[in-house]
Write a structure and sequence with these properties.
By secondary structure, the protein is mainly beta. The chain has one helix at about 30-35; strands at about 10-25, 45-55, 60-70, 75-85, 90-105, 110-120, 130-140, 145-150. The chain has a single domain (about 10-150), classed as Porin, CATH 2.40.160. The chain has an 8-stranded antiparallel β-barrel. The two termini are about 20 Å apart.
């Protein structure tokens, strides 16, 4: 039942989620992310919680999670995302991703590049376990919104 063959470049899912909470550890997320303040020498850490609907041709439901965002002193924004997907039929899939956020000059938008692993023990979704997902997207700080599309490599 979990036998599903993915074609390279095939869209697996897409989502647009909203920030639900941002936890700051001393530095202001708005100041650092907008470029008004440089990250401190030890870097700036923020926990960015999010949730929203997931659509797509192969995976539908909701996604809810947190990005343990680290902005290094040199400005590199490193992503460390942990989330759960709840499919339309109530099954749970774990999502783990790393990657980078690249700011667009003069805009409150970052380009995202994520390397995603999906894990589940539900037989009908076991086809997800061996694949690695490449997920480009954007974050718009002015809207508090992240948009991602996940593709089979």
């Amino acid at each position: 039942m979990g036998e599903y063959k993915v074609t390279p470049g095939e869209l697996i899912y897409e989502y647009t989620v909203r920030f639900t909470q941002v936890v700051e550890y001393g530095a202001s997320a708005n100041a650092v992310l907008s470029g008004q303040t440089r990250p401190p020498a030890e870097g700036a850490r923020f926990d960015v919680y999010f949730e929203g609907p997931m659509t797509g041709p192969k995976l539908k439901g909701t996604v809810k999670g947190v990005d343990y965002l680290n902005i290094r002193a040199d400005g590199r924004c490193q992503l460390d995302i942990h989330a759960e997907i709840t499919t339309e039929d109530g099954k749970k899939i774990a999502l783990a991703a790393d990657g980078v956020a690249i700011p667009e000059e003069g805009a409150p938008v970052f380009q995202l590049r994520e390397n995603v692993t999906l894990t589940t023990n539900h037989p009908e979704y076991s086809w997800l376990n061996p694949i690695q997902v490449w997920a480009p997207g954007t974050v718009d700080l002015s809207k508090g919104e992240v948009s991602i599309k996940g593709y089979a490599p």
